[in-house]
Amino acid sequence: MLMLLTRSIVVFALLALSGCSWFGGKDKDADSLKPAKLVKIDPEVDIKRTWRTKVGKGLGRKYLTIAPAIVADRIYAADGYGYVGCYDRFTGKRLWHTQVPAESGGFFGKLDVMDRTDPSFLTGGVGAGAGKVFVGTTDGDVYAYDAESGDQQWRGEVGSEVLAPVAVGDGLVFVQTIDGSLTALEGETGVIRWSYDTQVPILTLRGTATPVFDGGVVYTGFANGTVVAIKADNGEPLWEHRVMLPEGRSELERMVDVDGSPLVSGPLVYGVAYQGKVQGLRRADGGLLWEQDVSSYLSMDQGYGNLYVVDDNGVVTAIDENTAEVVWRQEALWRRGLTAPVAFSNYLAVADNEGYLHILAQSDGRLMGRRKLDGHGVRSPLIYREGTLFALGNSGSLNALEIEVR
Length: 406
Description:
By secondary structure, the chain is mostly beta strands. The chain has 3 helices and 32 strands. The protein has helices at residues 2-17, 106-111, 113-117, and strands spanning 45-54, 69-71, 74-78, 83-88, 94-99, 122-129, 132-137, 141-146, 152-157, 167-169, 172-177, 181-186, 192-197, 212-214, 217-221, 226-231, 237-242, 263-265, 268-272, 278-282, 288-292, 301-303, 306-310, 316-320, 326-330, 342-344, 347-351, 356-361, 367-372, 383-385, 388-392, 397-405. It is globular, with a radius of gyration of 20 Å. It starts with a helix and ends with a strand.
């Protein structure tokens, strides 16, 4: 009980310290804590909205990051209050929607003042695969819906809050929970096949990595600062690598969460820890190949031979995948509460707490374009598919966008 209460207090204390951003650095100077003001740029691209629709009631006042999911010609999106909808990804037309049964919010919710004023309970999603769509809840339930019709297929229980989308592969559904567990559910029934558990530090960020399934192996990160590779069929750990060891006197200084999903690319796996490092690892055994000092709790992306990382102060950094050298840094979006970066074509996209979408050049990080998408901000990860960028705003606005050179 004490651990859960302490986590809740830390979340709100850090939010207060960081102003409009999420978990900033340690600089106590008042000016350094303020988000950077947007400066005028000469746009090199046009950001055109092809369609926009509303997804339920939005994400509410909690720090929810419910990402949409795309399968074929459909996009699936959810709000924080149990609404799940399916849309044509080319037109935005709603094809079906359903409502997840309301829940109590669990013990954590009873301790949290914000939970009592905001009854959102759908906290993990959206995952998709094997003909189903998956969402997770505060009470530790996973719901599976038929991707074609929206009919509920099953409900599985994983025992703790789900804060990230599930991964799907080899007939299994992989669910990560806030208590430091990774659970594999049978894809057809929701019955638990295996569970892998880690020890959770006293204080953690409120979030978890999204598991990555690839080639019969599940890769993920945990709040204790580790990245692990686990056999998908039986839960046997293949290797475990510690990205960052806790350092400092206080529990706050010792937080080293790996909340960004591991990036699996060919023979390599990349991981990053909060108050830690970006590391390149051998996929075969988790051996360290290189590292660079960057602190982040967001997932990374890659392109142009670079890794792209948004650090905990909103600095966007490009790191050479082979040499680990910093190629460029863009500091114009300092402390604006950026989303994880998405690389496509020649561009890199991020959105911020004020609802702006920013387009950067992958080559040198210069700002190429900007557009306001949602007056309540954007927290959920952006998604790119076949020429279209999708962004779910905090108010529930789902936007389909195309980037065109001027």
